[in-house]
Amino acid sequence: MRIHRFLPPVRTLGLLLAASALSAQSPSPLTDEQGAWLAERGPIRMCVDPDWMPLESIDDEGRHVGIGADLITAMALRGDLRIELIVTRSWPESEQLARQRDCDILSLASASTERRRFFDFSEPYLTIPGVVVTDLDVPFVRSTDQLADQTTAMLRGVSSIAEIKLRHPGIRIVEVANYEEGFSLVQSRQVFALFGNMASISTALQRNHIRNLKIAGTVGLDANLRVATRNDEPMLGEIFATLVQDLDPQTIQRITNRWMPVRYEHGFDYSLLWKLLPWALLAIAAMLVWGFKLRRLNLALAAANARLREVSRIDALTGLYNRVPLDEMLEAAADHCKVERKPLGLAMVDIDHFKAINDRYGHAAGDAALRQIAATLMRCFADAGFRVLRLGGEEFLIIGQDVEPAQFGAQLEALRAQVADSPSQFQQHNIPLSVSIGWIASVPDANFSPEQALRRADAALYRAKAQGRNRTLGD
After folding, report:
1. Global pTM value
2. For the chain, the helix, strand and coil percentages under 3-state DSSP, each to the nearest 5
3. I need a labelling partner for 170 at 20 to 30 A (CA). Which of 20, 149, 368, 384 fits?
4. 377/349 Cα distance (integer angstroms)
């Protein structure tokens, strides 16, 4: 491991947890293969956020403390892991060391497209609501839509910065080193608001005795925190995925309560409480019953609407997306590529001589061919960065973000070859298949037009068909 001059010495993580938090007698959830791999590998180096209480931090003695520290300790005990803490000065420094493979895991990290280039992620084991802090005179904030054209502060290095820039390009982001700097900017009216997570924001407001700011509402940017593991060691990711799944919800709740205790204020007039209590309980009971019924109705309605919306977006024959979400998917991918300055890939795929298949073998044979090619498309472009749609008839579209043009062209050529080598088996017939493909790949500029991009890909497809079909041609 490369030791950086600015890093203090590596310190071993103390595996201390209250006995009530877990049962040491229960068998390890890891397989024999995973246990043997750990025994051969040696200590797991961990980087953390050194100043993110109550979620986690590094204290004055160089120890990992907070909710995340206790949960990692619980996992370490269950899996018999040897973990070493790499002491850093900031979260960006921790993430950079992990990307350089000087750390093996990040204890609490949100997944993002960019981070998945370097890390595998467990399922979320801690979810903290996202909130916005403003002046006292600002009305209740229900969503980020209310912050359009405003300047807001966010912690430097958090993954939700890219998400906000993508979804709400009108919101101007100022990155700050810590919440205290963000509070100061809000107080001086240099920014309108500060984004953060509920746990850390509440702790920082209380720790700094700030009374002229408020949490103005939740904004739908919940922090779904996971263990991030270096993706060049997939076994490490499997191990932490197993340990996260093994975490007992009661253990998580006890640990969370330990670091976020409920406090009661003294000096209350209890005689008044006893006078009002019966009426208050009656009102609360009525509200709870009504709220429960209303919540059930809303959940059922939301689920039905979600199912209807999803069904309307899926092609019944192939299981691929249909034309309905095309504009939404294409614009989202283009916006992402603009922000990241990476190429957007589009490929039109057309089945050659499809009408002849229907005419000679019947429409059932044509449907079987469509399903076979759809399955091939999904296998060849299974990565999360791609979307595959059936535009109608025998025509398909592939949308890819952050593509490398040469690699994208090679994938498309591999798709063409695979289709050509796999005739459709229908009843007693062996039906040869081929496709023609036209594609483009470029970084969208300020004048990007979805319609123009589709026309370019379609023009490339037309040239591929004009040159004899069963070929791949880039613009």
Report:
1. 0.48
2. 45, 20, 35
3. 384
4. 10
CATH code of the domain containing 457: 3.30.70.270
Q: Same structural domain for residues 112 and 155?
A: no
Q: Which helix (H) or strand (E) holds 65?
A: strand 64-65
Render pLDDT for 128-182 as a digit per residue (tens, 0 to 9). 888 888 988 887 777 777 777 888 888 887 766 666 776 667 788 888 888 899 8
In tens, the pLDDT along 284-315 reads 777 777 777 777 777 766 666 655 555 578 88
Given 221, 247, 271, the domain boundary residue is 221
Q: Which residues does 461 contact at the CB level (< 8 Å), separation at least 6?
A: 348, 349, 350, 436, 437, 438, 473
**How far, in Å, CA of 389 to CA of 395, rounded?**
9
Burial level of 363, CB count in 10 A (0-12/13-18/19+)? exposed
Shared domain check, 34 and 97: yes
pLDDT in tens, 94-122: 999 999 999 999 999 988 888 899 999 99
Tell me the CATH number at 198: 3.40.190.10
Band of residue 248 on the pLDDT scale cut at 50, 70, 90: confident
Instruction: Please identify, among 221, 240, 273, the residue that sits at the C-terminal boundary of a domain.
Output: 221
Residue 206: domain span? 130-221
Residue 170 counted as domain residue: yes
